[in-house]
Amino acid sequence: MSVARTQGWFNLVSGMWPLVHRRSFEGITGPKADVWLLQTVSGLLVAIGWAQIRGAGMGAGTAHARRLGIGTATALFVVDVRYAASGRIRRVYLLDAGFQALWLSAWFRSTPGGRCAGMRGKRASSPRP
Q1: What one-character DSSP code corresponds to residue 34?
Q2: Distant-in-sequence, close-in-space partners of 125: CB < 8 Å, separation ≥ 6
Q3: Can you tell me the distance from the alpha carbon of 51 to that of 104, in angstroms, rounded to the nearest whole number?
Q4: Considering 5, 26, 71, 88, which has the largest number of Cβ atoms within 10 A of its Cβ?
Q5: Least confident of 20-34, 35-49, 52-66, 115-129
Q6: C-alpha span between 63 and 68 (Å, rounded)
Q7: For the chain, where are the E strands, in sequence order?
């Protein structure tokens, strides 16, 4: 199974969990003051996961799935580490940060030269005056 599909399923399932059974999710991650925010993030993870699953193996779809995967993993990693380390959220989120680091590693290992798809062989161009 590709990194895109695997991470897509991870994002889809982890996004569905609080929507399907909020009590068990909050039992592990702690109570949430803003349920609307929990539902928004969950819905976004479901949408991202679905896009990754559907785009995997479809040329440009794989490149988009990679960009979504790297962007999502980076954002979740930074938030998990910053707020778990400060005690704002439970330390269990450091476990999620570990998963996000693994996704980033998988993406960069699966890309020749360790660069994002779409960047191979391209140089930054400067705007013309």
Answers
A1: -
A2: none
A3: 18
A4: 5
A5: 115-129
A6: 9
A7: none
